[in-house]
Design goal:
Layout lengths: L1 H6 L5 H20 L11 H15 L7 E5 L7 H7 L4 E6 L2 H14 L4 E5 L11 E5 L4 H8 L14 E7 L13 E4 L12 E7 L3
Helix pairs in contact: 2-5, 3-4
């Protein structure tokens, strides 16, 4: 928890209490449904929670924003972001239904009412969003294809509606197809060694 307070000193007491519950909750759920690697569960706050919150360093979601977490897995980045942005709505979408049980269980215990799970593929969703977020799911070209047509035509943020994803490694070839792309090394936000090869990538929506 100290690492969260270090980078997000503005957290309210309620948010701190909600974040503090995640370690034990994910440990318990992980024994039933494996959504986090065994080696990472003890580094939950750095490698999953703080990693997810990199998006909050890039953009402050406006009240009433609607966000899709594409391929949400066990709820990263949507669950940490939902705690941080209680006024935004998050649709956690995954084609593997059992992972959504983890999210539902965690949200119920923590008291999150702004996360909604959908057992579906992203391209089959019938809603529109301000942003689609994703963490280590698929190449950017696939993410943009799956999310095409899922964005509101009007923007409520200074940053245009689009895809925000968290990725690792050398992205030179992966991002070549895009004329306009923003790539931010996470070392710009966080100093821990874990983030040395991690990036945030933003691509505005296809028209």
């Amino acid at each position: 928890m100290d690492i969260l307070k270090k980078y997000f000193p503005e957290l309210t007491e309620k948010q701190i209490q909600q974040f503090a519950q995640l370690q034990e909750l994910y440990k318990e759920w992980n024994e039933k449904i494996n959504v986090i690697s065994r080696k990472d569960i003890d580094n939950l706050y750095e490698r999953h929670v703080l990693h997810s919150l990199a998006i909050a360093k890039f953009i402050q979601f406006e009240e009433g924003s609607k966000i899709m977490d594409l391929g949400c897995g066990g709820g990263f980045p949507s669950v940490p972001l939902a705690i941080y942005f209680p006024g935004s709505r998050f649709h956690a979408v995954d084609s593997i239904g059992k992972k959504l049980k983890v999210i539902d269980g965690v949200c119920e215990t923590v008291g999150l009412t702004n996360v909604f799970t959908f057992h579906s593929r992203a391209e089959q969703m019938e809603y529109q969003y301000d942003f689609v977020i994703s963490r280590a799911v698929a190449p950017a070209t696939e993410l943009m294809t799956w999310s095409k047509g899922k964005y509101f035509p009007k923007n409520r943020h200074k940053i245009l509606n689009g895809l925000i994803c968290l990725k690792g490694g050398d992205l030179t070839e992966e991002l070549k197809p895009f004329k306009e792309v923003t790539q931010i090394p996470l070392t710009q936000y966080f100093k821990e060694e874990f983030f040395a090869d991690k990036s945030l990538v933003y691509i505005k929506r296809y028209l």
